[in-house]
Design a protein that fits this description.
2 domains, Mannitol-specific EII, Chain A, 10 strands, 9 helices, about 15% strand, single chain, alpha/beta
């Protein structure tokens, strides 16, 4: 695959070819599905050290499912591919259990592996994917594709766009999970510390250095870096955020920054009735 300037990429097809699509996955579970897609990339020499990448992907899934809901999953890992980025897509007629939050089986799997030297590349790619995958009409066209070429044509319509400056496109649940792990490390006995350090390391490998640098500074200064927005107020400083931002955060998995205290904002957990 030719090396490309990520700022100039306009379509998903810049990274995807029909030969990187498995129209009818044979896999019965998500581990088998991930391995089946990695086999495709390995045969085309788009990745090296399949065993290492498989382990990294499974470890990532154990932290937090990459199922987005509505029958879509985007398993991913930041690990040396031997190139820039490697993408494979698998479709399952019956669906595969992926521990999705909405309990729905996954019918379309988009696997992404990218080079550690390009930390912002996945965010760029994910921003474009998310815009299309949120549309019910687009998902149905992908699920109902007649063959590999038909599915490729649908996916080729995905336009890649850079994230807007007012938000960082990254999984909020992942950053919040990192905070939980870092807090546990403070009080953890030596027997548990190694496991927690490994978990933190896996999460950090998926996040941009700029994002992590800010996170670490906030953790050092305040003891926490991610705050919930509850009843329209940042729980880190108890100051109301704008109505527009509060509405955007609700139901979103993007990360926003409090204009008052600078902490990352996520939606508060829904209270049980």
């Amino acid at each position: 695959m030719e090396k490309k300037d990520i700022l100039g990429i306009t379509y998903f097809s810049d990274y995807l070819k029909p030969s990187q699509i498995v129209y009818d996955l044979e896999a019965k579970d998500k581990v088998q599905a991930i391995e089946e897609l990695l086999d495709i990339l390995a045969k085309q020499k788009l990745i090296r050290n399949k065993k290492l990448i498989l382990t990294r992907l499974i470890d990532r899934e154990s932290l937090d499912s990459t199922a987005l809901g509505e029958g879509i999953a985007v398993p991913h890992a930041r690990v040396d591919t031997g190139g820039e980025i490697a993408v494979a897509v698998g479709r399952s007629e019956k669906g595969i259990e992926f521990d999705a939050a909405d309990k729905k089986k996954v019918q379309l799997i988009i696997l992404v592996v990218w080079n550690p030297t390009l930390p912002g590349l996945f965010n760029h790619l994910f921003a474009g994917l998310a815009q299309f995958l949120r549309k019910s009409e687009f998902r149905q066209r992908a699920f109902q594709a007649k063959d590999k070429n038909d599915l490729y044509n649908v996916l080729s319509e995905i336009e890649l766009r850079l994230p807007q400056e007012d938000k960082i496109v990254s999984r909020a649940s992942l950053l919040k999970k990192l905070q939980e792990v870092e807090m546990k490390k403070r009080k953890a006995p030596k027997a548990q510390l190694k496991t927690l350090q490994a978990q933190a390391s896996y999460i950090r490998e998926e996040l941009d250095q700029a994002l992590l640098a800010r996170f670490d500074k906030l953790m050092e200064r305040y003891g926490f870096a991610v705050a919930e927005v509850d009843d329209g107020a940042c729980q880190g400083c108890n100051i109301n955020v704008s109505t527009q931002m509060s509405s955007a955060i609700e139901g979103s998995n993007d990360i926003y920054v409090c204009e008052n205290c600078g902490k990352y904002l996520v939606a508060a957990k829904k209270k049980k009735k």
